[in-house]
Amino acid sequence: MAKATKKAAKKPAKKSARKSASKVTKKAASKKTGNPLKKSGKRFLIIYHAPIDAMEQTMNASPEQMEKGMALWKAWAKRAGSRLTDLGAPLVNGKRLHSNGSSAPSNRDVTGYSLLEADDWEELEDLLSGHPHISGWHPGATIEVHETMLMPGM
Hints:
Number of helices: 4
Distance between the termini: 60 Å
Order of helices and strands: HEHHEEEEHE
Helix content: 40-55%
Oligomer: single chain
CATH architecture of the domain at 42-147: 2-Layer Sandwich
Structural class: alpha+beta
């Protein structure tokens, strides 16, 4: 009988904890926040390019080599700080979609992306100096940068 009492006592506690967490989540979700593009600077899409052999090189790296490479990325992310709004991710299996509904594999060498915020191009270039993607990882690796535009009414 003692076990049944303990179980009965735990169920309401778990249930109320879930309800409480659910209320907090719903409250946070319903809170109106400002437009995420209206921060302290301009937003830039950073597109990483690398030839196929560079990606093969990465996929065949040892765990130690992978860890060393990730340490460089973590150090850069730390240096960029809050200006790095999205570290992004590697990209694979790109497709090109056409207006007629057809698709084909992408012929671009896009390998990843990040989002950075900067007041101007000078600050952006400073944030990208020493970036691990273009600091000796592969001679064919490049970074392409595009400034995002604010969409009126969005």
